[in-house]
Amino acid sequence: MKPPLLLIGQGSNDDADSAEFGRFVHRLRCRLDQKAADVSGGYLERATPRLSDSVASLVARGHHRLVALPLSLNRVGEEYPAAMEREQQRHPTLMYDYGRHLGPDPRVLALLAERLNDAATEMPRLRPLELVGGRPRLRAVEAGIADLHPGHIEPGETAVVLVGEGSTDPSANAEIHRVSRLFWETHAYDFMTVETAFVSVTPPGVPGGLERCRRLGAKRVIVVPYLLFAGGMLERVWAQALAYGAGHPELDIRCAEVIGDCETLADVVIDRYEEALQLVP
Predict the structure, then answer these.
(1) pLDDT tens digits, 241-281
(2) Does the record bear Lyase in its keywords (predicted)?
(3) Is residue 195 a contact partner of residue 161, using CB atoms and an 8 Å limit?
(4) CATH number of the domain to which 152 belongs
(5) 200 and 65, same structural domain?
(6) Beta carbons of 127 and 139 less than 8 angstroms apart
(7) Distance CA 21, CA 19 (A)
(8) 16 and 115, same structural domain?
(9) In this structure, what DSSP letter does residue 33 have?
């Protein structure tokens, strides 16, 4: 039997993010069951199951070696390997191999291109926000005539803003700029430009990215979140874009969905798992 795969998430207070993480773990469990490998997932903080509980469960079931994989598009900090070192101290018999984060894998870029194309063809305009349980939530509304019949806009008049989470680590932020360039050259070269923005922590924010596109002469801007799952982070992206759009009604601003739980993403994770196994001497 192969060592189990342990997916490590950062964790958030958002139920939607946690639910999609859980569904993705289940998808991988179904996929890897054909290869006789167990799959589990745990968070570093703020959400359940916690990493420590998931590791304890695997050890209790007789697993003393596993592959730990950070489920992240971005460069991960020292907190991920540090967390696994703490688990090794709790369970002295535990051995683990550490897999690479997902990063701008060509299949990830292809998924971003799918979300971009969906937003360009299916979403007429940004949907307004309403408060649900004290938090801003997007809701669907009937589109007006102007929304249903926008003027024809060429791809060369359309800009893209790729939005990363934002970090205090300059190298992590530089990686998002690199992803934007890769995405433009491999999947979005017909568009005017692919600009980079961040949800928080570091500039430019989403409004800054949109403003740059407007000044470059874009008539339409499509915001593409460089995020795995829906949740509070995605809502912040949409809310910032909506707030900017309220002051610039002449600009057609559209927002794409996140990558989400899907088979292609599972393919990337399984490849990282197999890669980690092959690196073992």
Answers:
(1) 999 999 999 999 999 999 999 999 999 999 999 999 987 65
(2) yes
(3) yes
(4) 3.40.50.1400
(5) no
(6) yes
(7) 5
(8) no
(9) G
